Amino acid sequence: MRKETQKVLILSLLGLVSVNVMAQQKAKRDTIKNIDEVVVTALGIKRQDRSLGYVAETIKSDELLKTQNNNWSQALEGKVAGLKIQTAGAGPLGSSIIKLRGDISMNPDQNNALIVVDGVPLNNNTTGTGFSAYGAGAKADLPIDYGNGINTINPDDIESITVLKGSTASALYGSRGAGGAIMITTKSGKSRKGKVQVSLNSYSSYDTVLKWPDYQYEYGQGTLQKDTQGNFFYSYGASADGINTGSTSSAFGPKFAGQYYFQYDPDLEGQSSERKLWQPYKDNIKGFWETGTTFSNNISVEASNENTSFRSSLTYLKNEWMMPNTGFDRFNAAFSVDHKLSEKLKIGIKINYNKTKSDNLPATGYSNQSISYFMIFQNPNVDLSWYRPIWKKGKEQVDQVHPFSSFIDNPYLIAYEMLNGVDKNFITGNVNLNYKITKNLDVMVRSGMELNNELRTQKRPWSSANYLQGMYREQHVRLMDLNNDVLFTYRNTFGEFDFSASAGGNIRYTEYTMNDYIAEGLLKPGVYTLPNGISNISKFARPNDKQVNSAYALATVSFKNKIFLDLTARNDWSSTLPKENRSYFYPSVATSFILSDIFNLSSNSFNYWKLRASWSKVGNDTDPYQLIKYYNNSDFVGSVESPSLYPNPNLRPNMITNMEAGMDFTILKNRINYTITAYQNNSKDQIIRIPTLWETGYSTKVINAGEVRNRGLEMTLNTYAVKNKNFSWSINANWSMNRNKILSLPEEFNGEPYTMGSVGGVVYFNAFVGGSLGDMYGYGLMYSPDGQVIYNATDGLTAKPTQMKKIGNAYPKWRAGIQNEFRYKGITVSFSFDGQYKGMAYSQSHHKMTEQGKLEHTLFGRENPGGMIVGDGVVQNPDGTFSPNTKPILLSSYYADYYRRANVETNTFDTSFIKLRDARIAYTFSKNVTDQLKITELTLALFGRNLWMWTKFPLFDPEAATLNDNQITPGVEMGQLPTARTVGIQLNVKF
Asked: What separation in angstroms does the CA of 690 have from each of 134, 645, 653, 701?
C-alpha cells in the first residue's frame, strides 16, 4: 500500500481511549476488549462510557447464564464493587433486594436500588403475610417468601445489566432512583442481520445443603434427671426406671453407652413394652432434606433486517426444592419487535409474561409452622421415621404424631399438610415511538406497564400447635404500575463542541390492593375452603394509590471528545406530600476529563487516564395516606378501626446530596484497567415513624427528622494476565468499603436512641447521634475491670445488666470479589470468589440449640461429677472487690442462662466469610463439528454455585437475614433455612 493512501483508523477502545493506528499496522486483539463501548444510562439513554462523570458498570448476559440462578440477581454477587444482594434464605424463590453503597435512610424501604427494565421502572415491593419471624408462643403464623418483582425477570431474556451506583447517575428517575439503579436491557434480535436464529438453552441442576450446624450425637434427650440410685436415666413416660423424662426438648440426658431404656414405640404410639437400646440417630435432621432439582428449557427465535428486528422466547422452569414437597413452576414468555415505519418514525414493542405457581413454599422463622423450628427441637435419640405416618392411627386429618412435645409440629405435617400456595401472573411491557422531527431534533414517547395478579393460600391442618382446629387463608394481591414518558432531544455540533439537550416529562400512577380472607377453624378437617370456616374474617384493603408527575431536562456538552459536562434537572409533584410541599426540584452535574488525551500522554505502556466528578441532589417522597387520618377496615365486616399512625399534614420531601469523584486508568495496551471511586451521600429530612404517647390515641407518628452520612471507597481491576492466539487468562477483581454515620436525630428523643426496628424482641437496631445504621443493641454480659465475666454468688448464674449495649454492626467493614476465566481453544474454565470482613449476626437458632444442649460446644462439662459446672469468671464482693466464682450449677442451667435468648452478646457472631460463589467448565465445539450437525454453535458446560465456604459463623450461612413480614433484615438469623450448594449441566445450541 502506498504511503500517501494510508488511512488512519480510529479505534475507540472500551469507549474510553482513542488510538491512531496506521492502516497497514496489525491491530492485535489482545489490546482491545470492546470497541465503542456504550452503556445504558437513566431513561434508557445510551452513552459512551468515556463521557460519563460517574461509575456505570455493565454485566453481559453471558455472566448471568454461566451458573443459572433461579433468581438472576444473585449472579451479580461479588462481581460489582459496592453492590450487595440481600436475601432472607427463606426458600426456593429467594426474594432479593439490591443495595448499592450501603443504607442512606433510617427507613428501610428507601435503601434499595431501583430496577429498570428497558427504560421502565419495576415495582419491586414485597407483600408480606403480616407476621413477624419470631412467632413462638404467639399463636400466629409466619412469613413466607412468595418472591418479588426481581424473580419475574427471566435471565435468558436479558441482554445486559448496567449498574448506576450513585444518585447522580440515577437522578433522572427521581425519588425512586435515590439508591441507585439497575438498568436491564432485554434481548431484541437486532444483531442477527437478516438471518433467523433459533437458540436453545437447557440445564439441569441439583441442590444439597451447603453447611450444617455442629450437632452433637453423644448425649440424648433429658434434663439431667437421676434415678433412685443416683444415675442419669431416660424414660419415655413414667416406668419402672423412674419418672417421665421424654417430654423435654433438651438433650442433657444420658450418654449413649449401650444401655437400655423404655423409649417411644411408633407401633404402639407410646411407651415401648420393653427396654430398647439407647442410641443416636445421626441422620434424623439431615435425612429429612432431599436433593433439590431444577430443570429449565428456553427456546428463542430472533432475526432482523434493515427495517425490522424481532425476538420471541419461551422458558419453562421446574424446581423441586431441598425441603420435601416444596418448589415451584415458572413459565416465561417474551416478545419484542422494532420496526422502522418510515425514515423518520420507529416503533418498538416489548412484552414479558411470567407465571409462577407453587402448591407449597416453606414458611420461615421461629415458630411451629417452620421446619427450622423442628430442626432446633429434634433430639439425638429420636428416629425421623417415627414421624413419617403424620397422623395417629384412625385419626387422619384430626390428630398428628408428635410424641415428644405438643409445641413441636410433625415435620412431615409441616411439609405435606401446612401448604403455602401461590399463583402469580405478572406482565411487564412497553411501547415506544421515536420520531425524527428534523435532522437535529427527535422525540421519544414511551408507555410502560406492570401488572401483577396474585392468589396466595395458606392451609393449616387440625391439631397443629397454633391452630388446633385448623385454618385456611387467601390473599388476593393486585398491582398496577403505569409509566408514561415523553422526551425531546436536540443534538448538534458547534465547531469543536458537541452538544445535546433533552427535555421531557413522566406520569407515574400506581394502584395496589390486598384483600385478605381467613377461615379460623375448619368445620370439617382437611377441607380448605372459606365456607368451611368456623368463623370468617374478611379484610378488604383500603385504596393504596399513588401518582407522581415529573418534568426533567438534561444537557451534555463535550469539547474535542476530551472534556465532558452533564447537567440534569428534575421536578416532581407527588401525591403523597401536602400541596405546599408537593413540588420539589433537584439538579445534578457531572464532568469527566480524558487527561491522557488532553495532555497527550498516551503510549503503548500508558494508554488512558480519566478524571471524573459529580454532584447531585435528589428528592424522595413517602408512602400514600400519611397526611390525614384514614380509617382501616376491621376484622368485622362493614366496620372500621381507628389507625395507630398519627398523620402529619406538613411532611416535606427527604433530600439526598451526593458527591462522587474518581479516576480510570488503562495501561499495557489496555491489558490492565483500574478504577477508583470515592463518594459521600448526605440524607436530610428523612421521613420516619417514631413512637408517641398512648394518651394521644396513637402509637406512632410520622415526621421529618434526622441526617445520615455515607462515605465509601470502591476499586475495580480488570486485566488479561495472559492473552495469545490459543490461551487467555482474565482476572476481574473489586473491593469496596462503606462507612455510615448518623449526624442528627429527632429532637423528641432528647439524646435517647431512636429504635429503627427490632427482631424477636431481643435485637434492636438503635440509632444514636454518632452511631451507624445497622448498629445492633441488646443485653449482654457484665465484666469486671480486668475483663472477666461477673456471676452472682448466690445462684451461680451470670449477672444481669439493666441497660442494653451495642453488640456490633450488621454490615461488614469491607467486601471483595475476584473472578478468573481461562480459555484454551474451545475450553473455558471460570470461577469466582467473594467475601466480606467483619459484620455481626445474632442467631436465634444458636441460642435455642445451645440452651437445649444440641450443639457440640455444649459437650464441655458433660463429664463433670453430678452434671455440675462452675462458670469461668468472678463474683462481686460486698466491698466492691472481685473474687473467683466458685458456685456450681447444673450444666443445663448454665447453658440456658449464659446463652439465653436475651443475651444477644453470646449469640452474636462474626460474619466474615469467603465463598467459592460459582465455577464453570465449558466446551464449545469447533466449527467442523457444528457444520456437520448443521448448527451454528454448540456449547456443553458443567457449573456450580456456593461450592465451598470458609466462615466461623456457627449456623447455616453468615449472610444471615430475616424475613420479617415483608422486610428483609440483615444481621439476624431467626429460623434460617439452609443454603443450597448447586451443581448442574448446561447445553446451549444455536441454529
From this structure: 22, 10, 17, 6
- Residue 85 CA to residue 101 CA, distance in Å, equals 12
**C-beta separation of 921 from 941 below 8 A:** yes
- Is residue 7 pLDDT above 50, yes or no? no
Residue 957 in grid coordinates: 450461612
Grid cell listed for 870: 462452675
Task: Output the pLDDT for position 30.
Answer: 39
Residue 12 has pLDDT above 70, yes or no: no
Cα 963 from Cα 96, distance rounded (Å): 11
Domain assignment present for 943: yes
| H helix intervals, 795-954 | 844-851, 891-898, 927-933
Residues 734 and 830 in one domain: yes
Q: Which cell is 670 given?
A: 489496555
Please count the residues of the chain. 991
Domain-located, residue 234: yes
Where are any strands of DSSP class E within 753-813? 754-759, 763-767, 775-778, 790-791, 805-809
- Rounded to whole angstroms, the Cα distance separating 145 from 250 reads 30
For 534-568, write each residue's pLDDT tens digit: 998 877 776 788 899 999 999 999 999 999 999 99
In the three-class reduction of DSSP (H, G, I as helix; E, B as strand; rest coil), residue 311 is classed as: strand
282 phi and psi angles, rounded to 5 deg:
-70, -10
Q: Mention every residue, 6+ apart, whose C-beta is less than 8 A from residue 268.
A: none
Same domain assignment for residues 526 and 575? yes
Judged by DSSP in three states, 507 sits in strand
Nine-digit cell at 960? 444471615
Sign of CA pseudo-dihedral 164, 166, 172, 177? positive
Angle 397-402-403 (CA atoms, 0-180°, nearest 5)? 130
**Helical (H) or strand (E) element with 687:** strand 672-691
* Position 193 confidence tier, pLDDT thresholds 50, 70, 90: low
Q: Considering only CA atoms, which of 164, 179, 72 is closest in space to residue 119?
A: 164
Q: State pLDDT tens for residues 818-833.
A: 999 999 999 999 999 9
- Kindly state the average pLDDT of the residues 685-711: 86
The CATH number linked to 714 is: 2.40.170.20
- The answer to whether residues 545 and 646 belong to one domain is yes
Helix (H) or strand (E) holding 416, with range, is helix 411-416
Q: How many domains, the chain?
A: 2
Q: pLDDT at position 22, please?
A: 32
Of the three residues 239, 254, 288, the one that is the final residue of a domain is 288
pLDDT recorded at residue 15: 30
Whether pLDDT at 327 is above 50: yes
Averaged pLDDT for residues 871-894: 95
Asked if the structure places residue 478 within a domain, the reply is: yes
Which residues, 6 or more positions from 515, have their beta carbon under 8 angstroms from its beta carbon?
475, 476, 538, 539, 540, 541
| Cα distance between residue 405 and residue 403, in whole Å | 6
357, three cell numbers: 405457581
Q: Report the share of the chain in percent with pLDDT over 90.
A: 64
Cβ distance 793 to 810 under 8 Å?
no
Q: How confident is residue 25, by pLDDT bands cut at 50, 70 and 90?
A: very low
In percent, how much of the chain has pLDDT > 70? Answer: 95
Handedness of CA 383, 384, 388, 394 (dihedral sign): positive
Residue 131: what pLDDT?
87
Of 263, 288, 313, at which residue does a domain stop?
Answer: 288
Q: Give the orientation angle of helix 891-898 with respect to helix 844-851, to 10 degrees.
A: 170
Q: Return the beta strands (E) in 327-408 as ranges.
A: 327-340, 345-358
Question: Which domain covers residue 676, as residue numbers?
Answer: 189-210+305-369+418-774+810-839+912-990
Whether the per-residue pLDDT at 254 is higher than 60: the answer is yes
User: Both 713 and 656 in a single domain?
Assistant: yes
969 touches 757 (CB < 8 A): yes
Residues 456, 475: contact at Cβ < 8 Å? Answer: yes
Asked whether residue 22 is domain-assigned, the answer is no
